[in-house]
Amino acid sequence: MRRGLPRLVRPTGAAQVTPLDDGTCRFTWLSDLLPNELEPAIAAMIEAGIAAVKRAQEAA
Known about the structure:
The chain has one helix and two strands. It has one helix spanning 39-59; strands at residues 9-19, 25-34. It has a two-stranded antiparallel ribbon.
């Protein structure tokens, strides 16, 4: 644990890829984390993860 930051409690998540009629897909990422005070840091990590998934898919 870093100084001054609370520890995550019960982190859970799920990812789902849903095919769409136009041949593309929708990527859904759900995260449920406590405490809420970590939301800004976790949101930044999720955004970075989504960007990585997008780059990988576009390169495929």
